[in-house]
Amino acid sequence: MSLLPEELDILGMKIKVVNEEILEKDEVYGDWDGPNLTIRVDSTGTTDQQLVTLLHEVIHVIDEFCHLRLTHQNVYLVSQLIFVFLKENPKLLPLFLKESV
């Protein structure tokens, strides 16, 4: 069973998430297929590897939809930094889930 959600809402669009073994690895742990609105994440990685890969691909989605023109190095760095920030500050996550008053 996949630990990742089957679908994400990103900027008002439904993005399918496929968590499966990626056979054509060559240092690829995930990818973003814009025409099919699909993120693919290699299921053979650790939980942290899968989560940081998902975050990396989500940033690619945002980059494409918002025309940010980030380099792949920028996407890599931002995904790693956000991942570490979230891991180091777990008390913040529930606050994002609370309903606004």
What does this molecule look like?
This protein is of the alpha+beta class and 101 residues long. The chain has one domain: Zincin-like (2-Layer Sandwich). It has a four-stranded mixed β-sheet, covered by helices on one side. Strand 3 and strand 4 form a beta hairpin. Helix 1 packs across helix 2. It is globular.
CATH first level: Alpha Beta
Category from helices, strands and their pairing: alpha+beta
Poorly predicted runs: none
Q: Count the E strands.
A: 4
The spatial strand order of the largest sheet comes to: 1-2-4-3
**Count of folded domains:** 1
Please tell me the overall pLDDT.
93
Question: Which terms summarize this structure?
Answer:
101 residues, alpha+beta, Zincin-like, 4-stranded mixed sheet, 21% strand, globular
Strand and helix layout:
Layout: E1 7-10, E2 13-20, E3 30-33, E4 38-42, H1 47-66, H2 72-88, H3 93-97
Parallel strand pairs: 2-4
Antiparallel strand pairs: 1-2, 3-4
